[in-house]
Amino acid sequence: MDTNFKMTPLEKKWVLYDVGNSAFTMLVSTIFPIYFNHLAQTAGISDVNYLAYWGYAASLCTLIVAILGPTLGAIADVKNFKKRIFTVFLGIGVAGCVLLGFLSSWIWFLGVFVLTKVGYSSSLVFYDSMLTDVTEEERMDSVSSHGYAWGYIGSCIPFIAGLAVVLGGDKIGLSMQTSMIVAFVITAVWWLLSALPLLGAYEQKHYIEKKAHMVKESFVRLGHTFREIYGQKHIFWFLVAFFFYIDGVYTVIDMATAYGEALGLDTTGLLLALLLTQFVAFPSVLIMNRLAKKINPTTVITICIVAYLCISIYAYGLDKQYEFWILAVAVGMFQGTVQALSRSYFGKIIPAEKSGEYFGLYDICGKGAAVVGTALVSVLSQLSGRMNFGVASLSVLFAIGLLLFRKAVRLNK
C-alpha cells in the first residue's frame, strides 16, 4: 500500500470529507433500498416495480444535478463563493438524511430521497473541484486515491452502528421506523462532523474575480467553457467516455442491494457482503495507486473498466447468495480506483481557475447517480420481466466507455 505518502494538514481535511460523505453513499446502497422495499411491500408494490421506481428516483437525481451542476459550478468559481455553495448543499443533504427516517409513505420517502441525494451530489461537485486548491498536480492521484480509500473504511463505522440498530432494534423494543430514524441520524451527524474541518481550513486559491452581473456572467462563461471543451478533444472525449463507464459503476453501487432484494436473497447476507466490499476497497485503492505510479494512471483506469465489463456479464447469471459475495469482492477491488484516478486525471487536464465549471460538467456524468444505467436497468427489467437481463445490459455502457476512453488518452499525447 501507499504507506510512504504523507499528506499535508489541508489534504487530510479534504480527505476527511470523503470519509463523511461515503457514509451516506453506504447508507443509500444498503439500508435505504431495504427500508424502501419494506414501505413498498406494505403498499402492495411488486418486486419488479419496486426496483424500477428506485431506479427512476436515482435517475431523477442525476437529471436535477445535471441542470444545477454546471451553472452553480460557474458561480462557485467566483472568488469566495465555492465554500458558500458547498455549505448550502451540505446542509440540504444532512437535513434530508435526518428527515427520511421519519417518513412511512413510500412516495414521500422517494421524494425526500431525491432532494437529499441532490444535496449530497451537488456538494460533491464543489468538493471535487476543491482538489485543485488543496494539493499540487503531481500529488492529485495519491490525494484523490486516499480520499476514496479512507472513505470506504471510514464509512464502515456509522454503517455498522446503524446496521446494529436496524437488525437488532426489535430485541431492545425498537420499531422498524424508530431503528431507521436512529440509523439515519447517526449517518447525518457523521457526515456533518467530517465536513467541519474542511469548512474551517479551505481557501479558494484559484478563482475568477466577481463582476457586476454575476449570474449572467456565469452563463456567458459556461457557454465559453462548452466551446473550449469541444475544441479540446482530449477533454471532450474523456467526458463522453466517463459518462458511459461511470454510469455503469454508479448503477452497480446504487442498485446492488435493490437487485439482491428483488432476487429474494437474504437481507443480512446482502448487507454483510456490501460491508465486505468496503474492506476490500480500502487496500485495493492504495495498491492500485502504487501501480498507477509505476505504469500509468490511464492504464489502471482501463483495467478497471474491463473488470467492470466482466462483472456486469457475471451478474446476469447471479441467483445465489455466495455469487453475490463474489460480486461484492470484485466490485470492491476496482470501484474506488476507477473513481479516484478518473477524478485526479480530470483535475490534471483542466484549467485550475475554472475547476468549478469543469467539475460541474464532470459530475453530471458521475456523482449525481447513473441516469442512463439506472433507467436502462429499470426499463429493461420491466419490459422483459427479468431483472438479470436489465443488470447485464450495463456491459454495453462499459464497452462504449472503454473504447472512448482509449480514444481520449490517445488525443492527450
What does this structure look like?
The protein has a single domain (9-203, 211-411), classed as MFS general substrate transporter like domains (Growth Hormone, Chain: A, Up-down Bundle), CATH 1.20.1250. The chain has 17 helices and no strands. The longest helix has 30 residues, at 47-76. The protein is mostly helical and 413 residues long. The two termini are 29 Å apart.
Relevant terms:
413 residues, mainly alpha, Growth Hormone, Chain: A, 17 helices, 0% strand
Beta-strand residue percentage: under 5%
Task: List the helices and strands in order.
Answer: HHHHHHHHHHHHHHHHH
Average of the residue pLDDT scores: 82
Shape: globular
Q: What is the C-level CATH assignment?
A: Mainly Alpha
Q: What structural class do the secondary elements suggest?
A: mainly alpha
Roughly how much helix do the residues carry, as a percent range?
Answer: over 70%
The radius of gyration is: 20 Å
What's the number of extended β-strand segments? 0
Largest sheet: none
In total, how many domains does the architecture comprise?
Answer: 1
- With helices defined by DSSP (H or I, 4 residues minimum), what is the helix count? 17
CATH 2nd-level architecture: Up-down Bundle
End-to-end separation in angstroms reads 29 Å
Low-confidence stretches: none
